[in-house]
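Blinded run. Sample ID left blank on purpose so nobody reads anything into the name before looking at the predicted structure. Input follows.
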Amino acid sequence: MRPLFNADAPGAAVLVAKNGKTMFRQGYGLADLATHQPIDPGMAFRLGSITKQFTAAAILLLVEQGKLNVRDDFREHLPGFPDKGTSITIEHLLTHTSGIPCFTGFGEYEANMATDMTVEGMLATFQDLPLEFTPGERFEYCNSGYFLLGAIIEAVSEMSYAAYLANNIFTPLGMLHTAYEGHQRNPVTQVRGYSHDEENFVTADTLSMSQPYAAGALVSTVDDLARWDQAISSCQLLPEASWRKAFTAYTLNDGSSTGYGYGWDVGDLHGSPKLEHDGGINGFATHAMRLPGHGLFIAVLTNSDSGIVDAKEIANDIAAIATR
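Blinded prediction complete.
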């Protein structure tokens, strides 16, 4: 790890756990270039799309509480969303197979990403657009689907997304430093995020976290992510069947596999199951990987979205070493 990060540049927090025991935990590089504060592995980072697995778990909790079903047409819970002439299920949203256009791909997204938005205001940016394909026809990674899942969580639970996750996931599991950014419950240093231009690292562009919302707005630490892995391994929060469903790749209408479950990429490493997800958001690139056959969990959280080694590449290299 050490040669991958310069001591005077953005870096990473890295954790490797085996069967619930932390085997490796280290920080590299700087948390703040202006003050030269080094990264400590106990610091918090933006997770980006690793957020999606928590949103998916919240949906499954509501299923267990009898408040919805993943087979429901999502408009049963968000009746204000325009009818598209075909059923779009909650499962389609979970698996990126809905056909709804992705708002982060719109040309005007970057120009407006610093603007605070309401949930309704964000929905208005894509809800009237036609579907890009028939639901279930193909896999197309889509932040709009997970934004909608956050709105469903709020509508069904009658709580804010931030509060529902805090009360039903983070607090019960002792994840004290995981939260929707701006709604942190306990003080912890959050590292600054950077981008790399042609020559230097610069402060990342401002992003209102009201926009990534349930698709990417959580912050956490490597220690809390290890707690999350242990909760999954011991079937806390949800029964084994629900976790198994989250880790099962969705099958398209034509019978082919998407390689994606509910908020997780589903694959293998040398024939052993591999469950993972990366995250890319202003100032940060992240990766979390579970190798349940080896009892391994790997988290790599970096505080630059460019100019350093890819977090997923690092996690895969660590996995190769840890499974020798």
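Unblinding after everyone has recorded impressions. The first helix runs from residue 51 to 64.
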